[in-house]
Amino acid sequence: MTLDESHVEAISNIAATLYCLNRHEEAEQHWVRAIKLRPSYLEAVEHLVSFLCSVHRSAAAVNAIEFVQGSLKIRDESGVPRDPASETASDADSSSTTTLADSNLDSNPDSYVLDSEASDSPDRRFASMVENSKAPGFGSSGYRIPGSENGRMMLLIHAKGNILYSLKDIDRAAEAFEEVVLIGAGRQFRGIRSLIQRIQTVLAPRDPMSGRHPGSPRESLSAPLLLTPDKAKLTAQFVFAPTGGQLPGLQHVSEGAHKKSVVATTSNSLLSLAKIYQDAMSGGGVSSGLARQPAGVGDILSLYYLSLSLQESPSTANNVGILLAGVQQTSPAPSLSVSDLGQAASIPGIVPGSGLALALAYYRYGLTLDPKHVHLHTNLGSLLKDIGQLDMAISMYEQAVACDGTFDIALTNLANAVKDRGRISDAIKYYQRAVAANPDFAEAVCGLSTALNSVCDWRGRGGVLLAGGKYDRWHVDDKGMLQDVKSRGQGSGLMQRVVDIVRRQLKESASWGRGLLQEQSILQLAAQLRDASARSSDRSLDLEAELRKWAGRPGEGYRILRLIERATLAAMRRWYQEKHIMGVRSPGPYRRPKPPVSLTIPSAPTVLPFHTFTYPLPAKDVRMISQRNALRISFSTLRSPWIPATVYEPPAPPSPHLNVGYVSSDFNNHPLAHLMQSVFGMHDPKRVKAFCYATTVSDRSVHRQQIEREAPVFRDVSAWSSDRLVDQIVKDNIHILVNLNGYTRGARNEIFAARPAPIQMSFMGFAGTLGAEWCDYLLADATAIPPSTLRPHRINLTLGDVFRDEEDADAEDWIYSENIIFCRDTFFCCDHKQSADGHNEKGMTWEEDQRRRWKMRKELFPNLPDDAIILGNFNQLYKIDPTTFRTWLRILAAAPKAYLWLLRFPELGETHLRRTARDWSGEGVARRIIFTDVAPKQQHISRARVCDLFLDTPECNAHTTAADILWSSTPLLTLPRYEYKMCSRMAASILKGALPKGEEGEQAARELIARDEKEYEEFAIRLANGLSYRPRVFPASAGAGV
User: Fold this and answer.
1) Which GO terms describe its biological process (predicted)?
2) Among 185, 561, 615, 1013, fewest CB within 10 Å belongs to which?
C-alpha cells in the first residue's frame, strides 16, 4: 500500500484481515474502495456480497452487484449496452443495473450503493481492462472481463437473482436468471425466447422425408414437446452441438470444481426461471413486469429440458412432472415406447405417450436421483389419486410422510386419500398433524373441519356470527360444551378459522386479471367480441367504453372471461341463424374468442361448492365459491390444446325430435341412478330422444343395466378424452345438454365449459348454483329455489346483459345466475313407483300395513317398550350440526317416550354423539338414542316404516332419503333453514310433491314444514307426544298408534 495506495488486491486482502478481526465496518469500507477502483476485481465483490448477506443487508448486496454490472457492461458508441455476439441489444439486458452515473452514497445501510463520484477517473479505473482486452474470451460475457472470469460473473448475478427472489421482486429476479443463462450460452442468443426457439427447433421430430429438423420452432401452446427423461438429458448436446454440448460461455473457464459449480448454477438459473414462469402461469393475476415471459407449457418445458441436461436434478424432474401431468395430448408414436415409460404402461388409467405417462416417468426418474425427495413422492401420489389408483396414492403419500413427518402438503393429501378410503379416524390424525406443522395451511384447516364435522366431533368447532345469530346460533367450545352466539356476540374456534379463510381467498381472487384492461388490450378484446357477436341484438353497444369502466376494478379477469364465454354462445347462435334460418351457403368462420395470453390460471377457494352445504356462510360467499370454481374450469378448458379456434357447429333444428344429452358419472349403483333409472326410457320418442354419456365404467348393477337397456342411446365414455367426448356430443346433434353431476365427485364440467350444445342445464346432481356461464338453466321449483334468491337482472343472452348484470356482482342476497325452469310441484325425480316391489303393496289395507310395521319394529328393536315413539334420521352424520342436535335432545327431553334412531353413517360418529348427548342432556336422554348400521337400499326403504316421525336435518336436508321415507308412508318434519341454500330446502320441496292437493295437503304441509328453529322443536314435541301406542288384538300381538 505504501508503494501503490491503489493496489486493489492489497486493499481487498486488508479488508479480509479486518473482517477476521471483527472490524466489519472497516472491512466493508476497504472492499468498497477496491470495487470502486476496479469493478472487474470480482473477488472483492464476492467478499462484499457475502458479508452484506451475512448481516441481512440484501438490498445493499443487490446494489453492489448491479454497480459492477453497470460499470463493466460493454456499450456501443452511444452508450447503449451491447452484446459482443450481436449488434442488436439483448432482450435480456437488465433494466435495473446501476451505472457509474447512476450510483451515489446513501447513509442508510439497507439501501447500500457505491459512490462513483468519489472514485478514480474512468480512464484509470479501466486501465487494467484495456491491458486485458486481448485476453482469451474478453467481453464474451457482455462485460469487460476475460472469458476466464465469466463463471464468477455468472455466480454473482445468480446470487443477485436468488436475493431478489427471496425479497419477492420476481421480475428483477427473472431478469437476473435470464442474464446468467445468456452468458452461459455464450451470448449466442438475443434473449431467452431465442434460446427457447432454438431448443424447440433442434428437439422437434425430424421431417420423415428430408430427415432434417423443421426450420421454425413448434407452436408451444398447441403442441409442447413431450420427451422422456433420457431424451431430455440430451438437450444440451443438440443446442450446443459445436462445443460438444458444453456451455459456450464457459469455454475459457478452467476445468475443475469451479466450472462444475458454474454449470450447476446455469442449470439452477434455468430451473428458477422456468419455475417463475410456471408459477405465473398457474398463480393468477396478469403478467406485467415479466414482459419476456414464455407463452405456455411448451416454452417452460424447453427450459426444464435444458436445465436437466446440464445437471440432473430431482427438483427439475418434479417440476417437469407437474407440468406434464396437465398436458392433454400424447406424444407422437415414434418418440415413446413402453420401455421408455417403465411401469407406466401397466397402470390402469395411464395412456402410453400421454402427459400423465410422461409425468409418471419423470417422478420415478427423480426418485432414482433422490429416493427421499418428499415433493416427488407427494406429487406422484396425487397423480395416482387423480387416475383412481387410490391405494397406490396412499402408499406414495405414506412414503412422503416417512421422509418428512412435518410436510404439511403430504400429510393433508394423505388425510384426503385415507378419508376417501373410509378411514376417517386416520384422516383426522393426519389433518391434525398437518395443522400442527403449519397452522395457516388452508387445505389442512378446512380438511380437518370437514372431517371432524363428518363424525360429529364438535369439540373446538366454535362457530360464526351469521345474520345476528339466526344461523349457527349454538357454538361448541374446546371442552365440547354449548355457547350461545347471541351472548358471545362473535365467532370462534375452527369454524371461524374456515370462514375467515374463505373470505380472505375470495377477496384475493378478486384481483385475478386486474390491470389487464389497458387501452391496447381493450381494443383487441372488443374486436374479438364484436366479431363473435355480430348480428346480436346489442350491436350498438360501445364495447370499448364499457370495458374501460371495468379497468382496474375488482373481478376484472372474471368479467372478461364471462364476456368471452357469452360471445362464444352468441357466435354459435349466429351460426345457427345464418345456416338454418337465413340459408347462408358459406357462413363463418365463427371464431371463438380467446382469453388474453397474459391471463394465468385463477385459483379456486379451498372450500369446495359441496362443502358450502354444511358451512354457515352468507349468500354472497356461497355464490362466489361456485363462481370461482366455474371460472377456473372455464379458463383451463379454454386454454386446452384441443379447443378449436372456432365455436362448435350448432345442431340442426329438431327433425323430428329434440336431442337431449345426459352426462353423468353416476349411472351405477348410486342415489342418482336409483332416482332416475327409468327416466331415460320414458321420453316420448316422437318428440325427444335421450342420449346418455356415462363417464365411469359399469359396475354391472341392476341400475346401470336398466339405463343401458332403456336409454335410446347409451355411450360408455369412461375412457374417452374430453375432446373426443365433446366431438361426439356435437356429432350427436345435441340440442340440450344436461349436467347430472354439478360439483360432485366424478364431474366432467370441462365438457360443458367447451360449450358443445346451444342449451346447457343442471338437474338433480347438485343442490345449488353452478355459478357458470356454461350452465344456462336449472330445473327446480319455487320451494327449493325461492324467486327472491335469483340474480336481479335475469336476461342472459347478449354481451350487454353481462355488463348490466355485473352491476349486481357485489349484492349480498342473491345466489342463482342461472335461469330457473320452475316445476309446478316438486322438481325432484323419484323412481319408487317403477322400482318398488309393487305386487306386495297393491291392495294392502291399513291394518295389514300396521301389522307389518309392528312386526318389523319388534324384529329390529326387540327390547324397545311397546309404547315407545321412534323419531328417526337416516342421513349421513355430516348433515347434523350442533344447533340441530341440541334441538333433538330438547325434543327427547320434552317427549319422555320418544327415542331417536340414527345410523352409524359413519361408525365413528356414534361415539361422539353419545358423549355429546351425555354432556349436554344427561344420561337419561342420551340412552334414548339408538344406532343401527346402514342397510341395503330396499331394506332401508322397507324398515323406514318402523319410524314414527322422521326428523330432518335443517342445515342440509335429506334428499334421496326424504323420498325413501315418504314412499314408506312415514311422515317427515323439516325446516328450510336458509332461504338461499337449495340443499336446506329440498325436503320441503319433496314433501309438498308427495302430499295430496287441496286443503288437506296444505294443512299437512303447515304441520310438517317449520318456519324457524323454535317452531321445528314445537312441532316435533307436539307430534311425538300426540302419538301413543295401545294394545290391540292382532294375530302377531301388536300395537296401534293413534
Assistant:
1) protein O-linked glycosylation
2) 1013
